[in-house]
Amino acid sequence: MSLYEDIVNHKEKLSLVGLGYVGMPIAVSFADKIDVIGFDINAEKIEKYKAGFDPTNEVGNDRIKNSKVDFTSDETRLKEAKFHIVAVPTPVNPDHTPDLTPVEGASRVLGRNLTKGSIVVYESTVYPGVTEDICVPILEKESGLKCGVDFKVGYSPERINPGDKVHRLETIIKIVSGMDEDTLEEIANVYSLVVEAGVYRAESIKVAEAAKVIENSQRDINIAFMNELSMIFNKMNIDTQAVLKAAGTKWNFLPFRPGLVGGHCIGVDPYYLTYKAEQLGYHSQIILSGRRINDDMGKYVAESLVKNLIRAEAPIRNAKVAILGFTFKENCPDTRNTKVIDIVNELREYGIEPVIADPEADAAEAEALYGIKFTDMKDIKDCDAVILAVQHDVFAEFTPADFDKMYKTEDAHQKILSDVKGILDRKTYENAGYIYWRL
Ligand SMILES: NC(=O)c1ccc[n+]([C@@H]2O[C@H](COP(=O)([O-])OP(=O)(O)OC[C@H]3O[C@@H](n4cnc5c(N)ncnc54)[C@H](O)[C@@H]3O)[C@@H](O)[C@H]2O)c1
């Protein structure tokens, strides 16, 4: 009897280690079919899930309330499961080197509670080699078991896109890999229970690890190219979006757009690859220049706004600037690694303390991480300039009348609107007398 059959027949359980934006939706999805233990070291988070509250907004309160996931912060409960999925964070240190502390910590927790016959699958984004060269030795040391004999490992990168209700776990082809053919089949079968789009069997764990890290590096480099174009075309007084629209009529022109690159994936994963490359004596040329461009875009947005204040003959110091949107991406409450903070910090250098509103963001998190208190949308008024920083759906519905209310009426100069992602119609605002700017 295979482990897969035992799991399907409810004789064995699956565990999720790390229940964040990635792990929690996976646990909830599997729990519709099989027995799932959901473990996280954050006891507070576990209590929220148990109470039927989904702070990530990924599955919603109702689904979590009705889910059969056995949520726990007691690591010994992991002994009850034989198929483990690890989805803990993989951030970078301030010097941009990989911070493997959570992956190593999760491996220790799992190792202490690992039983013979188990399969451990890592989902966290890593550089090629982390699963076999870093995690396996920890699992072996903590468990006293031998990999390949007493337990097996695999790797299956996660491609979900927080806030995206179309590309979900069920609808995205999932790469799976295993240390040998049998393990690969077990892992493929287990994921096929929930991934309707099907699985892709990578030829090795390292291939699967590498595939994930280059998917995001490719995006990062392409966005960096768009950002560079935007800086060039701004100097030429040409609208970048209009250029991209025209070029996009060619069949093989790729539809990327300029923008801020924050979050835990696109702005971080390339550093995992370049770190490993550097250990092997190769110094990245393309990947790291893309990173540098993207990392500087918040500063560029702020500087462009200041130039527009000067153009409008508005005072710079203590100008009233509102920033709409603070999360690292649209329609998602997550503010960690947001690049909007770079706009805020750069404006502060000019003596401007912006007011910030974000009806989608996790306000408690923003206050805890950045000391920022959001202003209510209805209290955004008397502004010299407004920066539309995040493409939330709620903002895309705004009309010129909605924006008009946000600006000062006394001693008024031309209204300045920075539409970072270019979601509004440029001509409408220019015709209404705005100084309209976008990347
Ligand atoms: N969020 C995304 O968009 C996304 C998409 C694809 C891949 N990924 C990758 O998936 C991984 C997880 O990302 P996330 O966004 O879910 O992170 P997250 O920060 O939302 O959640 C991670 C969870 O792991 C928990 N945790 C940390 N250390 C632990 C340990 N030792 N034992 C048990 N739990 C522990 C944390 O408490 C947290 O709840 C990362 O490697 C990320 O790069 C993320």
What is the count of helical runs? 17
State the major sheet: 8 strands, mixed
Number of strands: 13
Strand order in the largest sheet = 3-2-1-4-5-6-7-8
Distance between the termini: 58 Å
Unreliable spans:
none
How big is the Rg?
A: 24 Å
What is the compact description of this entry?
This protein is of the alpha/beta class and 439 residues long. It has helices at 3-8, 23-31, 43-50, 61-65, 101-112, 130-143, 181-192, 205-236, 240-247, 269-279, 286-295, 297-311, 340-349, 363-370, 393-396, 400-404, 426-431; strands at 13-17, 36-39, 70-72, 81-86, 118-122, 151-155, 174-178, 199-201, 321-324, 355-357, 385-388, 416-419, 435-437.
Architecture overview:
- With 439 residues, the chain is an alpha/beta fold.
- The chain is built from 17 helices and 13 strands.
- Strands 3-2-1-4-5-6-7-8 form an eight-stranded mixed beta sheet, sandwiched between helices. Strands 10-9-11-12-13 form a five-stranded parallel beta sheet.
- Strand 1 (13-17), helix 2 and strand 2 (36-39) form a beta-alpha-beta unit.
- Helix 5 runs parallel beside helix 6 (130-143).
- It is elongated.
- The mean pLDDT is 96.
- Residues 17-23, 39-42, 45, 87-90, 102, 105-106, 109, 123-125, 158, 160, 162, 264-265 line the site of nicotinamide-adenine-dinucleotide.
Task: Describe how the helices and strands are arranged.
Layout: H1 3-8, E1 13-17, H2 23-31, E2 36-39, H3 43-50, H4 61-65, E3 70-72, E4 81-86, H5 101-112, E5 118-122, H6 130-143, E6 151-155, E7 174-178, H7 181-192, E8 199-201, H8 205-236, H9 240-247, H10 269-279, H11 286-295, H12 297-311, E9 321-324, H13 340-349, E10 355-357, H14 363-370, E11 385-388, H15 393-396, H16 400-404, E12 416-419, H17 426-431, E13 435-437
Parallel strand pairs: 1-2, 1-4, 2-3, 4-5, 5-6, 7-8, 9-10, 9-11, 11-12, 12-13
Antiparallel strand pairs: 6-7
Helix pairs in contact: 5-6, 8-10, 8-11, 12-13
The structure holds nicotinamide-adenine-dinucleotide.
